[in-house]
Specification:
CATH class: Alpha Beta
Structural class: alpha+beta
Largest sheet: 6 strands, antiparallel
Order of helices and strands: HEHEEEEEHEHEE
CATH architecture: Super Roll
Shape: elongated
Strand order of the largest sheet: 2-3-4-5-6-7
Number of helices: 4
Oligomer: single chain
Mean pLDDT: 81
Strand content: over 45%
Amino acid sequence: MFYALCITFILSSCASYSVTEQDIQKYLDDRSGFERTVGIKGLAHANIKFENVKIGIGRVANDRINLDADSNALISVQGQSPQQLQIKVNFSAVPYYDKEEGAIFLNDLNVEDIEIQPSALNLPSKQLLSPIIEMVGQYLLTRPVYRLSDQDFKQSMLKTARPELLIKNHELVIQI
């Protein structure tokens, strides 16, 4: 009984934890980046290098995170010179907390804006750009944007509870 009272007291004293844009940015900077090839080599394919994500919490909409993702792609189509593209995609997504993982993931990903350089392409771009954007989006949906630490007492206690995730003042607040 005493043990249960102590746990209840501890949980009530650390009933929330705020994750800032800087916390998520650092987490993503340490972990983001991948390189993949999509298409059929020799016919039409693209080598995509995804390196950079910038985060904003509650800046586009009160319940969404926005992410600016930078990618470089080398697109090759049979009979044409390869073309280098820089693709900047702005996504918005709804964050959620996965208790089993002890991490914050994204759901309901929307493409808000796409910027492609050079803007004039000599290739059938739509057939190759859609899989590139889908690949970056899938990467963002399947990786956590932040994981609670077992090394931090407050975070480790929240991991064992059933916390709720809210967006307040451009921060993600995990609270019991």
